[in-house]
Amino acid sequence: MKLGLLQRYLSGLGIASMFGGVTQTAGAPAATLSAAAPPDATWRLPPRVRELVQPTRVRGTIAAILIGTLTGMFLIAEWQSTIDVPTTASRPTVTGETIDRLESEQAQLKQQITDLRSKNAADQQAASKSQQAQTVFNTEIADQRAIAGTVPLQGDGVDLLLDDSASHPLLPSDPVDNYIVHEYQIRDAANVLWEAGAVGISVNGERFVNSTSVYCVGSTILINDTRTSPPYHILAVGDPARFRAALDDGNALRDIKSRVDRYGLIFQVVQSGSVSLPAFDGGIAMKHAVSAP
After folding, report:
1. What is the pLDDT of residue 35?
2. How far is it, in rounded angstroms, from Cα 109 to Cα 118?
3. Is residue 204 part of a domain?
4. What is the count of structural domains for the chain?
5. Which ranges of the chain have pLDDT less than 50?
6. Residue 228 maps to which CATH number?
7. How many CB atoms lie within 10 A of CB 186?
8. CB neighbours of 238 closer than 8 A, spacing ≥ 6?
9. Distance (Å, rounded) from C-alpha 201 to C-alpha 195?
10. ∠ CA 275-280-282 to the nearest 5 degrees?
11. Is residue 177 part of a domain?
């Protein structure tokens, strides 16, 4: 029975013909064969060798080798298919997870770019406002420095000359003081120019500031504690037309104008146009003023 099953199995594999006339008779003993092999040249070989080269044994050996080979190939194919299936099945899952992760990272990077652009725009706007404020601040500082006299100043204005008289006293009783320039006359002329809108004044190279002093020691006039002498050039930066109108006002500078008429004192505008004032080069000492909070 087992031999018949094996023959049918080998027939299905295409190797049953290798067994030739090997059959099993129903009801007969398994060792009984349908026909005996005819005698051949192997009868001259020793019994042990002749047994090994019998056709039946050779065919059985070849069949066993083929069955083992085919079975091994089948098992290897099954094993490879068992390994490849999970890998092939998991590949779409891994790819999908990678795509999701990359898309998430891309979204985060885009959001970071948007946030950085917004911050950059805000910083630029703040910087622009800061620059505008800085420009306004610098302009105000420059204006205050010009008013304070700590920087040179140039612009339209006038050059007002005040000088001693070239005439001599007509009578011995006439005081000499009537023919010379006094410190208060310089202060009066400067005050008229300030009232007419002057933004800066200097006298003989001495810039007028809030602490400027003009006083007389004997016949010498000190301006900013610096000795000066006639002629006195009073330079003022501002509107020349307003300066002339203020100086020509009959109610202004009456003492100087009367001395011009009676004693020949020199008082006149010698230049109208661009003038330059030096910066104040002295120290500013505050005795009573303090910085505002």
Report:
1. 41
2. 14
3. yes
4. 1
5. 1-3, 5-6, 9-10, 13-37, 84-89
6. 3.30.70.1880
7. 22
8. 155, 156, 157, 193, 196, 197, 198, 199, 200
9. 12
10. 155
11. yes
